[in-house]
């Protein structure tokens, strides 16, 4: 049977997928990335093609660690988890955009565990309505916030409106074009991370023990959110209203709820310890790295 021709990647019914935490059918990666039937078909065909190639590999290097995903890794006997693969804060590997280091001095002036850090990675884009709801929600939260707004982060929002917003929150919030994320997440002033749940950001937040407010958009971000909220218990999700918008009231409410949840904070701290232990000498990822070195030397 030609599986590439048989599977179109379209949603036929919404039901729980075994061995996965809860994810809506429309949020499965090949569906959320496909705006047309043709795109979904291409996406699922790529997934199937990759799955057929996996058994042919002697070793699959993964940016995760054994304690984080034991069930998934049990299904991949040739996997070699080395994560968290995060560059030391003192020796960053490179920058997607020029970093605004002034935010570090600003963080130094904030109280411990007080700052809401907001960053949506390198590709997330908000329309004008959602952009303004996010801005107003951060202002309503009453918390100091550090918000990363790339040059192409929004479509339609006027510069005049945004300049007025920044003047309104001056002294309470700081907006930068790009931030040194690892140094921000490791800063004692940071209380939580409003994130798109991209895998790199998820691993960085986990390594530094920062609770998440999850705001995924596509691909694996929805399943990453489900792991954060339903498996690891280190965050909560932001919900869209009937317009498909995360409203300012939702942002205000969830920030308050997250920062008052001692259970989430405790679990985030526990996972930080596990992540650090995995890459320390004798940890699971450290041992796997030594194994990889031996494999490459054969």
Automatic annotation (TrEMBL):
InterPro entries: UDP_glucos_trans (IPR002213). Signal peptide: none annotated. It comes from the Eukaryota. The keyword rRNA-binding does not apply. GO terms for molecular function: UDP-glycosyltransferase activity. Keywords: Transferase. This is UDP-glycosyltransferases domain-containing protein.
């Amino acid at each position: 049977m030609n599986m590439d021709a048989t599977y179109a990647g379209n949603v036929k019914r919404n039901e729980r997928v075994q061995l996965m935490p809860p994810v809506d059918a429309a949020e499965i990666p090949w569906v959320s990335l496909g705006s047309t039937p043709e795109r979904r078909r291409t996406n699922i065909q790529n997934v199937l093609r990759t799955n057929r190639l996996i058994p042919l590999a002697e070793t699959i290097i993964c940016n995760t660690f054994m304690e984080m995903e034991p069930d998934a890794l049990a299904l991949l006997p040739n996997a070699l988890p080395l994560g968290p693969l995060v560059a030391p804060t003192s020796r960053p590997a490179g920058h997607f955009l020029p970093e605004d280091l002034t935010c570090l001095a600003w963080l130094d002036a904030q109280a411990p565990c007080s700052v809401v850090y907001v960053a949506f990675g390198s590709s997330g884009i908000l329309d004008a309505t959602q952009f303004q709801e996010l801005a107003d929600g951060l202002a309503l939260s009453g918390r100091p916030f550090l918000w990363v707004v790339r040059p192409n982060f929004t479509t339609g929002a006027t510069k005049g409106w945004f300049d007025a917003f920044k003047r309104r929150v001056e002294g309470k919030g700081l907006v930068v074009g790009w931030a040194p994320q690892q140094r921000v997440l490791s800063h004692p002033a940071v209380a939580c991370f409003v994130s798109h749940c991209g895998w790199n950001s998820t691993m960085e937040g986990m390594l530094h023990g920062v609770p998440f407010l999850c705001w995924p958009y596509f691909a694996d971000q929805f399943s990453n959110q489900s792991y954060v909220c339903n498996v690891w218990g280190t965050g909560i999700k932001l919900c869209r209203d009937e317009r498909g918008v995360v409203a300012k009231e939702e942002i205000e409410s969830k920030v308050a709820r997250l920062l008052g949840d001692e259970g989430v904070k405790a679990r985030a701290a526990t996972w930080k310890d596990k992540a650090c232990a995995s890459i320390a000498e004798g940890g699971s990822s450290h041992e796997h790295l030594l194994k990889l070195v031996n494999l490459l030397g054969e």
